[in-house]
Amino acid sequence: MGNLFCCVQVDQSTVAIREQFGKFDRVLEPGCHCLPWFAGKRIAGHLTLRLQQLDVRCETKTKDNVFVNVVASIQYRALAGKANDAFYKLSNTRSQIQAYVFDVIRASVPKLNLDDAFEQKNDIAKAVEDELEKAMSAYGFEIVQTLIVDIEPDEHVKRAMNEINAAARLRVAANEKAEAEKIVQIKRAEGEAEAKYLSGLGIARQRQAIVDGLRDSVLGFSVNVPGTTAKDVMDMVLITQYFDTMKEIGASSKASSVFIPHGPGAVRDIATQIRDGLLQGQAASLATTTH
Q1: Is Lipid metabolism one of the keywords (predicted)?
Q2: Type and span of the H or E element at 217
Q3: Most buried residue, 38, 78, 106, 110, by CB count within 10 Å?
Q4: Is the predicted pLDDT of residue 4 greater than 60, yes or no?
Q5: Residue 148 in contact with residue 70, Cβ under 8 Å?
Q6: Crossing angle, helix 230-251 and helix 264-290, to 10 degrees?
Q7: pLDDT given at position 1
Q8: Buried (b) or exposed (e) across 196-220, using 16+ Cβ within 10 A?
Q9: Distance of alpha carbon 284 from alpha carbon 291, whole angstroms
Q10: What is the mean pLDDT of residues 51-57?
Q11: What Cα–Cα distance (Å) separates residue 56 from each residue in 50, 65, 77, 94, 153?
């Protein structure tokens, strides 16, 4: 009906290409326009100015010979000021963009190892965008945004990467466990050393107390009982210690059977052995000093 009354409507975000006798005449903006068909004018077609998106999947390989599928998302639109170029110069805009994307990706990714390709996605996207912007601006299109949305290695490669990652984490866990065990052993050894040191101090203090007690006993007995010598007092102390030891052995519930010679002469023999040992020690000390 519009053509009958020589009127045509152009929708919003769209421009119409008007020709006269087969030659480009002008670009019609959104709205209602007069189109005198009897003067040879007609609408050759419409061109959308909306933002469009094209997803391109490109298979290539990395520098370390791993085949990957790179998925690029290209957002583009036609420029209203160059609508005639966008309409006439390209017969298939999407195929043209796809060819440029393939060219740039297959030139960029083979220079990178697989790990670097994941890390440098933005650099790859920038290279694709720069190449597309330079090429498509001559055809009346603007590249708004270029994104590398995914890099998909082969399934076997992904499984191997996961196994490597798992092995690395297990190695770290084993190292941490070994380090923890090492710390525990060091702390246990330090505790044992400290316990032995304190036990040694206790034994030394105990022996010192015994010696001090014996000395005080000998001195006190010699003072309070006239006519006694230190030898007499030591014999009595040894006899007392001997009977105390016998008492402890008999009272201990965990003691096994112990057979020892016992009698009045046994005490004298023990005292004689201890005294002889002390005298021999003193003689050896004096001989060493003389030489």
Answers
A1: no
A2: helix 155-224
A3: 78
A4: no
A5: yes
A6: 120
A7: 43
A8: eeeeeeeeeeeeeeeeeeeeeebee
A9: 11
A10: 92
A11: 19, 22, 16, 10, 16
Q: Is 132 helix (H, G, I), strand (E, B) or coil?
A: helix
Structure tokens at 139: 């055809």
Which domains are delineated in the chain?
A: 7-48 (no CATH), 52-153 (3.30.479.30)
Q: Looking at this protein, which amino acid is placed at residue 191?
A: G
Written as six digits, the tokens of 259 are: 């057979």
Q: Which residues contact 216 (CB under 8 A, 6 or more apart)?
A: none
Three-state SS at 100: helix
pTM here is 0.53
Q: Is the pLDDT of residue 129 over 80?
A: yes
The CA-based dihedral angle spanning residues 155, 157, 159, 161, taken in that order and rounded to the nearest 10 degrees: -150
Instruction: Report the 10 Å Cβ neighbour count for 98.
Output: 18
- 227: which 2 tokens? 């006519």
3-state DSSP call for residue 241? helix
pLDDT tens-place string over residues 151-200: 888 777 777 777 887 788 888 888 888 888 889 899 888 888 888 888 88
